[in-house]
Amino acid sequence: MPKLTINGIELEVERGTSVLEAAQFLGLPIPTLCHDDGLTPYGACRLCLVEVGRPPRTKLQSACTLPADDGLIVQTHSARVERARHLLLELYVATCPQSKTIQDLASRYGVAQVRLAPEFEDCIQCGKCVRMCREQMMAGAIGFAFRGPRRKVMSPFSWQSDVCRQCGACLYICPVVELRCHGGQPETTLCSGCLNFAPACLTYHDHAMCFLDPCVACELAGPLRQDLVQPTPQREATRK
Amino acid sequence: MPKLQSLAEFEQWRVACRAQRDPDRPCLAVCAGSGCTAAGAPDVLAALRKAVTRAGLEGSVDIKSCGCHGFCERGPVMLVWPEGTFYNRVAARDAGDIVANVSNGRRPVERLLYQDPITGARALREDDVPFYARQQRILFGNNGKIDPTAIEDYLSVGGYTALARVLSQMTPEEVVDEVKRSGLRGRGGAGFPTGQKWEVMRQQPGTPKYLICNADEGDPGAFMDRSLLEGNPHSVLEGMIIGAFALGASEGYIYVRAEYPLAVKHFRIAIAQAEEHGLLGQNILGSCLNFRVHLVQGAGAFVCGEETALIASVEGRVGEPQQRPPYPAQRGLWGKPTVINNVKTWASVPVIINRGADWYAAIGTAGSKGTMVFSLVGKINNTGLVEVPMGITLREMIYEIGGGIPGGKELKAVQIGGPSGGCIPASLIDLPIDYEALTEAGSMMGSGGMVVMDESTCMVDVARYFMEFLEEESCGKCFPCRKGTQRLREILTRISQGKGTEEDLSLLEDLGWVVRETSLCGLGQTAPNPVLTTLRYFRDEYLAHVREKRCPAKVCRELITYEIEPTLCDGCHACVRVCASDAILGEKDQVHTIDGAKCIKCGACLEVCQPKAVLVH
User: Fold this and answer.
1) Predicted model pTM
2) From B506, which residue of chain A is nearest by alpha-carbon distance?
3) Which segments in chain B show pLDDT lower than 50?
4) How large is the ipTM?
5) Closest Cβ–Cβ partner in A46, A65, A95 for B518
6) Residue B366 CB: number of other CB atoms within 10 A?
């Protein structure tokens, strides 16, 4: 069984445990956006970075993908780690200022000021929905398409996928979902419809990433909602 | 030719190949590398063939189309063997004279010899040319001697002897040890000690094991790997076969960009020839070594040069990197132990085996051994491929090999290591080129791109340009690289438009830091280098942009205005004719003026103005 040191505490864990799990076992809070216990580690959000190695030769590595190995020396809250998380969260808030999860994380890490223009993006591409769909729902109905600045989550060719069972798991697991589907709510409120499995659907938002069709919430709401969900000029502008 | 069944048969064949070659027989070796081909090498080749036929010398004079000789600036270049006479800027019309002189006492054609731009002296051979004199071409040296599509040519210059030696006299451990002792470091960029990588690989349990040759050369302006694959594919293949023996690998892959059709073609020919002769396949040369090589073409994503992304691409998945560990040596292609090395690293292996680790380790500096190949481009007189011993200074590189800056301008900076390399200022010109020194200066060895910039280059603009490239080439998987490069580019664009503030500079530093520290793969970890180094060495230039809204190099369009100096203008109308936006007013023979509202600042008038009356402020 590998023995490692986290923040000066020695511990022995089972082979195959990740550093993130080991740190969580010690009760150390490590923020993540792309990690979920039931999914394979992805290492894309970079928030779970920890400082690994014996000073001065240390390196920042994502804890979720790093296997706990013999003799590993890990710092989970060093100055370097804190600075990296702080700046990353500033970048996250600027990208997706409407997400409650991100806002909460940011305030926990003391991000009081964002020096970058807000973008109001719907997705941070943490890939949780993609892995959820493939690994837990055994469907693989959605995936990443394109590359770099144009990369996004979508169903094949943007058509309703044949293998999609409309289970809603993708919405359930999304960390920015509070406004990812804009529900039938005005701009200023959070919809959270997904939390009770009643998300608003694509009928009203051609660019919302809701893969449910038909969507229960929208059916219930009916045409009443249409006037509420007119895209605002500001949101349209940021999307272009 | 039947398959070679044993080392003895191989030796027989090799001796026969050498014997067939008459060392005194004239051979015209024309460079058919990318640069020379663009400059007209195919016409030269056709003209030479015609001239040989006309002179009735068919069968007594050989004509070869070779790989890149490196001196692209003076292309098309050619060598006349056995004397090794070096001709540059050869045109089809020179063919008659060249052939006539070969048959007639073998006197060189004086006018085609390289002429020193300062002294005017003619150089007879490559070694007499300053561009070549400082080089040590252990990988590229054979490019001028062999036809890349003929395995016999490679054999006649000592090819596959390293393989024969390894199979007959060495154990796999000894080969790994030899590579380790040579101090060879990965030539793909990161500079990881190859011997160490091989040792880790050897210790891995599990079969099969795989080898990969990384020929996904994506840097703009770099063509080292391409030239080596085009000009001497068997040297890379031999390195891979030796690697297979040392590491116990049974299959190898070479990942080449589809944009390199000639490299693909030549390497395919090399694989087919090696298979035909029993140098690949089952029981190579009668030994117990079984090894096959497959060629995979990449679709041109820069990120696929990263090893985990490359593996994903070979497997048919999206070319996105994965967090290491596990390293490919532990879990690589199809989940099996895999070793990935660059084209030049593989090609160095036969050289190390043949000439010994000690010989190789004697070249270079304490930490960086051997030679490094650079593509020397930008504002430099002698553009081309150069192979130099590690530790050579930038000064020697630029002023001795490169022949200095054109137009007598001042050197400003050198960008080393491809798009994500850093810009090294002219003040560090005596910096030795090795892995450690470059990293310390904020740059990196990278795969060996070297872009020279003169005083007319704006460093903010340079940083913006490379950020644009990297934003586009980021795979988008990890957040800091995808968003960080985009934000960096946005801020740099803002600064170059004169809309930046001083706070933007600290924001650039913060963002650069976080992208470098937190990105998943090498692309993101090095992406901020151009920004961070230009900020470090050329801060006053950034300050001029944000404080005074001025571009000192007069490059950033939003910050400059064009004006015609009335006392200098002779009213020739040349500028009016080239102006695409009709912004220049004034009748012929009258003083012209520029309408600032219409001017798009393209600089066309500046180029055509004879009396130099167009001024940029």
Assistant:
1) 0.88
2) A115
3) none
4) 0.87
5) A46
6) 10
